[in-house]
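3.2 Worked example (two chains)
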Amino acid sequence: MMHVERMAFAKINLSLNILPETGERDYYRVRFINTSITLHDRVRIEKTENEGITINEPAIDERENIARHAALLMFKTYRLPGGLTITIEKNIPTRAGLGGGSSDAAAVLNGINDLYALALSTEERVGLASKLGMDVCFCVKGGLCLIEGIGDVVKTLPFTLPPLELLIATPKEKKPSTSWAYSVLEWDELGKRHDLLEALVESIRNGDIPMLSKQLHNDFEEAIFRYYPVSHALKRRMKELGALSAILAGSGLSVFAVFEKRHALIRAKAQLEREGFTCHAANPVEA
């Protein structure tokens, strides 16, 4: 086998709870419910005879590209021969709270595992992912998961989401980074709505979309909305356009909404695109 191709799915946090305490590496402890969604990048990994990692993704500086770091980590850890060319077709908006870079990195870890027949277990790959970023840990597994610890404990939930109609809208503005988003959090605003996570799990188990939409929660919202009111206004606008619920995606600045009917989502998407937002319709993806 000389090459592999992988779809790198975006992720959304249906319940994002950050505890006002830190753990290993001074990272916040968290409790998330995450799901992969159909919006995705395409990652092609090709063996080369020449040593070194070449990455074709012009949107991101090579030195900062987490997918390249993932490949270097695999080569260093397992002393792999030759080199690689990695080509990423980007569809997931960058620095938008959708895990695009993390998903690309996870696709590289999983792809190299297959390309070199390393037969690494999921737990081994999650361990490697934890050296790259906590969202990479979830993206290695994908599907519907409970995330705990500092983001490195990933548990697949034993049921599936109902067929959610999701609309993701992204403003033109970009936040500095995810680490910046964590730096502006206020401790007294964190970790107060664990009840919503438990109710969300029950709604998912029952396949109750209207109730599920009422349990969406994100501890980043208050801080991010203070610095980027465009995301707060976008959340309100999506509700005005008929969404059952809308919430900040990850650390932003994208917002995602749940719609009851596909035709209502399509109308809202067209209107938000006229207003200057980048929009994607999506559905959940099983692992």
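3.2.1 Second chain
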Amino acid sequence: MVLGPFQGLPACTRILLEKGVCGTAAKMRQILCIDDVTKFEGHIACDAASRSELVVPLIKKDILIGILDIDSPIIGRFDETDIKYLSQFCNILIT
């Protein structure tokens, strides 16, 4: 995967499928909500301040077209409400 538009500190520009939270979510085509990224085996620390992460794969007509990746410096920052509404947002985004 190649980094596209983003906001924040400079990040990793290329991530292989299966690598890190983003690559794992993309490969599995599943939302991953990680409360503590230090406990995620293979986490890629692009931003040293990142403590939790929410990744939503963008799938259109069964093709992975991207991912939405949100990091937070707060452990356990994301919950079911975030997953619900960011999933809905992503569905609108890809239509």
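3.3 Remarks
The two ends are 21 Å apart (CA to CA).
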